[in-house]
Design brief:
With 122 residues, the protein is of the alpha+beta class. It contains four helices and four strands. It has a four-stranded antiparallel sheet with strand order 1-2-4-3.
Length: 122
């Protein structure tokens, strides 16, 4: 799959990305710190670079932060494109009971993303 995914139809690339971000993705949305980012964690930097190429195929700019083994999507236009092209699966929630949870409650990732985008204003 990883060797051939760039050759697969765009709809399958999109599904791979949704599965990746559903499983290994998070939202960093902290207005007080001016943070609005979508991040995906993966120990294998080659996979992060592949995810970056797949995102680019959908018009989404990102960068790999190898210090934290993350791919990061910033800027309103890229986050909007992520929401339009990929988004998170319906009903997928963050675990608010994790000790390091900033939310302290289970929230749907789609809802957090929607609130993040709304925070930009019009």
């Amino acid at each position: 799959l990883l060797k051939n995914i760039l050759k697969l139809p765009i709809n399958l690339q999109r599904e791979f990305l949704r599965a990746f971000f559903d499983d290994d993705g998070s939202l960093d949305f902290r207005l007080f710190a001016q943070k609005r980012r979508i991040k995906g964690y993966q120990h294998n930097v080659d996979i992060l670079n592949l995810v970056g190429k797949l995102l680019e195929n959908l018009g989404i700019r990102s960068y790999v932060d190898s210090r934290f083994n993350e791919i990061v999507i910033t800027k309103k236009e890229n986050i909007e494109q992520f929401a339009k092209e990929i988004n998170f699966s319906k009903g997928l929630r963050i675990n608010g009971k994790r000790t390091n949870s900033i939310w302290k409650r289970s929230l749907e990732k789609r809802r957090i993303l929607s609130n993040l985008l709304a925070s930009y204003g019009s």
